[in-house]
Amino acid sequence: MSSSVLPDFYDLSALGWNDSLAAGLPAGTLPARVARVDRGAAEVLCAEGQLTAHYSARVRRAAATDPVDLPCVGDWAALRRLPEGRFELEALLPRRTAFVRGGVGRTSQGGLSGDSRGQVLAANVDVVFVAEPALHATDTADLGRIERLLALAWESGGHPVVLVTKADLIGDGLAFLMDEVASAAPGVDVHAVCSVTGEGVDLVRGYLEGSRTAVVLGASGAGKSTLVNALAGEAVMETQQVRAGDGRGRHTTVHRELIPLPGGGLVIDTPGIRRIGLYEMGEGVEAVFADIEELAEECRFADCGHDSEPGCAVVAAIEDGTLPERRLASWRKLQREAAWMASRTDARLRKELQSKWKVIHKEMRKPGRNRP
Ligand SMILES: Nc1nc2c(ncn2[C@@H]2O[C@H](COP(=O)(O)OP(=O)(O)OP(=O)(O)O)[C@@H](O)[C@H]2O)c(=O)[nH]1
Ligand SMILES: [Zn+2]
C-alpha cells in the first residue's frame, strides 16, 4: 500500500533517539528502533537502514522467564554486528512508556489462563491520541469510551490528547459537543479534527514535533487510518473504504508497524493497539476522574460511597450541576472493571511500571496545565 521508497539509512534523531537513550547504550553496539516483531526476530530501523535482527540468547532467555522482556514495536534495542555481517538484537534499552496487556489469555480449552503475565503491545509512545468520532452512525461521541481510552492512555505513561474526529459530520453541534468532551477529559487537550477538510490536522502534527512517537486509539471506524494518512500526506494505512473495495483482510499489506511520517514524528499501529479498548486498565482510571477524586476528599466520611451518605461532596456537586451524573456512573463502571482486571493481572509488573510513571503523571497534572 505504501508508495514510499525505503531509505538506505535513517537519521537516528528522526526515529526519536536522544542523549538520555544514548547514555544507556552498551559499548560496541548500534542503536535501532523496533518497527515490527516476528518470532525470534525484529525488523528494525537504524543508521544502516531497515534490517532483520535475530534475538540474542540472552534476550530469548529473559523473554522465556518474563514475556514483558520480549522486544515489541517502539522499543529501542542495542544491535551487535556479528562477524558474518548479520546483526543480533543483544539487549533492549529501558522503556520510557509501555502499553501492557495483562496476562488474561485463553487456554487451549477455551477458559481463562490465570498465568497473569503481561505482554507489552507498544513501547516508548510519547503521545496517545484518543480518537472518538463526532458522529458514529447516528450517535454522537461516546464520552464513556473516551474515558476508558484515557484511562489506558494514562496508564501507559504517554501524554493523552483527545481528538474528536469527523468533525464535519456534526455541523453547528460541534461547539456544544466539544464542551461535553472536555468535561470528560479534565487536564487533557481536546481538539476537533476532520481528515476530509484537513481541519485540525496541523494541530495534531504539532504534538509530534521533536520526533515524538504517537499511537491513535479509538473504536473501529473512528477514522484512525484516515487521520494517519492525512498526517503522512499519502496512503500509508489502509482505510475501511480501501479494505471494503478490494475485499482483502486487514493488515495484509502493512508491514512496518512503526511508521516514520514524512513531516517528522512516528506513529505506531498494530492489531494489538487497535483492539486495546478491550483490554484492561488500572490506576489510569484515577487520572481520568481526577475531578471526582478531588471532590471525594471533601466528603465527610473517608470511605464515602457517594450514595446517600451525609456530607457527600460528590452528590452535592451533582445536585448543584457542577458534576454531570453520567460521569459518576462512568467512574463507577470503570472502577469495577479495573478492580476485576487487577485481580487477574500481574500485580508486581503493575507496581513497577506505575511507580516509574507516577513522576511523569505528577508533572503533567501540575496546575496551569489546562485544568478545567
Ligand atoms: N466525513 C468524514 N469521514 C471520515 C473522516 N475520517 C474518516 N472518515 C471515514 O470513516 C470511515 C472509517 O475510517 P478509517 O480511517 O478506516 O477508520 P479506522 O479508525 O482506521 O477503523 P478500523 O481500521 O476499523 O479500526 C472511512 O469510510 C473514512 O472515509 C472525516 O474526517 N470525515
Ligand atoms: Zn461522597
Based on Cα principal axes, name the global outline: globular
Structural class: alpha/beta
Total domains: 2
Q: Give, in spatial order, the strands making up the sheet with the most strands.
A: 14-13-10-15-17-16
Mean pLDDT across the residues is: 82
Bound molecules: guanosine-5'-triphosphate, zinc ion
End-to-end Cα distance, whole Å, is 42 Å
How much of the sequence lies in strands comes to 15-25%
In short:
The chain is 32% helix and 22% strand. It is built from 13 helices and 17 strands.
Summary keywords:
single chain, 372 residues, alpha/beta, OB fold (Dihydrolipoamide Acetyltransferase, E2P), Rossmann fold, 2 domains, 6-stranded mixed beta sheet, 5-stranded mixed barrel, 13 helices, 22% strand, disordered N terminus, disordered C terminus, binds guanosine-5'-triphosphate, binds zinc ion
Descriptive report:
Its cofactor is Zn(2+). GTP binds at residues 165-168, 218-226. It is found in: Cytoplasm. This protein is of the alpha/beta class and 372 residues long. It has 13 helices and 17 strands. The protein has helices spanning 19-23, 57-65, 143-156, 174-183, 201-206, 224-232, 240-246, 271-274, 284-288, 290-296, 313-319, 325-342, 347-364; strands at 30-38, 41-46, 49-55, 76-81, 87-92, 98-101, 105-106, 112-113, 119-123, 127-133, 135-136, 139-140, 159-165, 189-192, 213-217, 258-260, 266-268. A hairpin with a 5-residue loop joins strand 4 and strand 5. Residues 1-5, 103-116, 243-254 and 363-372 have low confidence and may be disordered. Zinc ion binds next to helix 11.
